[in-house]
Structure formats: structure tokens, C-alpha cells
Known about the structure:
Helix content: 10-25%
CATH architecture of the largest domain: 3-Layer(bba) Sandwich
Distance between the termini: 23 Å
Radius of gyration: 21 Å
Structural class: alpha/beta
CATH topology of the largest domain: FAD/NAD(P)-binding domain
Number of strands: 19
Number of helices: 7
Low-confidence stretches: none
Shape: elongated
CATH class of the largest domain: Alpha Beta
Bound molecules: flavin-adenine dinucleotide
Largest sheet: 7 strands, mixed
Strand content: 25-35%
Amino acid sequence: xxxxxxxxxxxxxxxxxxxxxxxxxxxxxxxxxxxxxxxxxxxxxxxxxxxxxxxxxxxxxxxxxxxxxxxxxxxxxxxxxxxxxxxxxxxxxxxxxxxxxxxxxxxxxxxxxxxxxxxxxxxxxxxxxxxxxxxxxxxxxxxxxxxxxxxxxxxxxxxxxxxxxxxxxxxxxxxxxxxxxxxxxxxxxxxxxxxxxxxxxxxxxxxxxxxxxxxxxxxxxxxxxxxxxxxxxxxxxxxxxxxxxxxxxxxxxxxxxxxxxxxxxxxxxxxxxxxxxxxxxxxxxxxxxxxxxxxxxxxxxxxxxxxxxxxxxxxxxx
Length: 318
Ligand SMILES: Cc1cc2nc3c(=O)[nH]c(=O)nc-3n(C[C@H](O)[C@H](O)[C@H](O)COP(=O)(O)OP(=O)(O)OC[C@H]3O[C@@H](n4cnc5c(N)ncnc54)[C@H](O)[C@@H]3O)c2cc1C
């Protein structure tokens, strides 16, 4: 069977698009490998309209339930290749399964690095978004009100200072634990000193804590770092591999370049000439990374996909 639309990524962007398309009686397949943040977020989100202090995992479950009830299908798997053109796209999963679609929506999000514990990122997953760790300044800063915070710099030290500065509006104090780069650009070093942000340099060898709540980080030299909360400053990489396979243009930081309705363009084509049949939505676009923005962009892309299909494949349902 050839689906009207295959959506790669069942985060807020993909699920919002699937809901709109399935409600409009389009055949929609979501394919997702479950590496987005929300299924693992056990802390509440405070800025998602309609979800009052609900945990990330519960929000995504409800969005998924709603899209599937409307008629969308969901396949768990990792899409490793995509080829084709409007009307005849073909996707292959890691397990060898292949699927065909008239149109595609790329809603693959961004990948983040977690701090390493004794050289391995996995021990940190017990705490990531489970208690007193924070990742998103635009979403979570108010949660730091009155708290003593350690910003863990996983990548560049300059980025750690840049991300720490706006947190100062809420936090009582901020220290930086630099586990990656240690060089800070002079203009940021000046700001760090102005705001009395002390620096600790070291690598984490173990974590003390329970039920997702970190009580102390133990560094390789034996130093014990305690705080009320730990903000993670880490590099983010748009998951753009499939876009690159299709020849889509990306920004300097690797986000898929889109029009405001999620239209994509080929690197080989001039500006304003959109690539027929492929849209992108959510964090993989160059935009602020928030649930409501992702769902909004998924919705507008779905409206555009439906309007496109009205021309190529009218429903004649009435
Ligand atoms: C710890 C944390 C806390 C946050 N808190 C908030 C908050 O309080 N409020 C707020 O508004 N936002 C918050 N955010 C941001 C919010 O979670 C994201 O903006 C949102 O999830 C983006 O949705 P998305 O659908 O674009 O991408 P994602 O949610 O990342 O979903 C993308 C999906 O695509 C799948 N995928 C990618 N590539 C493939 C492939 N090749 N094959 C199959 N599947 C694939 C992934 O597995 C993933 O499930 C937080 C983020 C983090 C990390």
C-alpha cells in the first residue's frame, strides 16, 4: 500500500500532524524509534496549554492515543533510508521493512548529549528529566527560582556560560562544572566574573542520589559537588540524516531549512522553489524548541500536506 503521508518521528510535531491528517481521512503512518525526550520525562511541564502540570511521559501518551484514535498508524522502528519523489517515496527501516508514501513529513527532532559518568552517558539517564536536572532554559528557568544551581558544561565552556546567564534571573547562585571544554571566550569570561560564577573543572566518576533526584556528583579527584539542581548545557544536533539523503538544504547548525509552513527545498534549487511532497516540523526546523511550537508547526505542515493531496488525490467522500 502507498500511504498518503508517512511521518518520521512521533514526538509532539509528528503526532499533531498525524492527528490532523487522520481526522481528514488521509492514510497516515507514523514511524518512530522512541529516542525523543518526552517518553523519558518524569518531571511536570508547566507551559503546555491544556496539560496542567502534567509529566512529559503522560503528555506524549495522550497525544499518541488521540492520533491513533483518529486513525493514524504507528510503527516502532528506525528509518535508515529514504528515496523518491512526490507520489512515490520509499523508506527502509533498520529491520529491513519498506514503506511507500505520496508525501513525507520529517519530524525527527534534535539529539542531545548527556553528561558522562566514568566515560559513559548511560548512568546519567537514571536522572535525566527525572527530578532535579534541567535541559531547556526557555521552558524550565522559572523552576530554578531561589535554587543553588550547578550548570554542567558537557561541550563548550563558552556555551555553558552563555546558557547560565539567563538562568541567573531565577537561580540564587550558579556554579559551572566544566566536564568538556574549558576555554571561555573573553567577553563571556568577563560576564562570568561579573556574576560571580565559580568554576569547577573535572569529570564525573559517580552520582549519589535516588528516585531521579541527584544529591551529589562525585568527581574523579574525589570532589563532591552538591546543589539544589543541575542544569545540563550540551551540544544539540538536529536529526537531519534523512533530509540530507533527499538532498534537502540545512542551516549552518544542521536544522532543515523550511518555509514558515514547513516546506523544504533542495540544495540544488534556488530560494523560493520548494521541494514537492516533503515537509518538516518541530525541533528539526530552525526554531525555539518547545512542545507547543512543535505541535503548531506539525499542524501547519499537515494542513499544507492535506491541501496538496486535495489536488493530487481528491477524497470524493461526500
Ligand atoms: C529534558 C527536557 C525537558 C523539556 N521540557 C520542556 C518543557 O517543560 N516545555 C516545553 O515546551 N518543551 C520542553 N522540552 C522541549 C520539547 O520536549 C521539544 O521541543 C519537543 O519534544 C520537540 O518535539 P518534536 O516532535 O519536534 O521532536 P521530538 O520530541 O524529539 O521527537 C522526534 C521523534 O523522532 C524520532 N526519530 C528521529 N529520527 C528517527 C528515525 N530515523 N527513525 C524513526 N524515528 C526517528 C525520535 O525517536 C523521536 O521520538 C524539553 C526537552 C527536554 C530534553
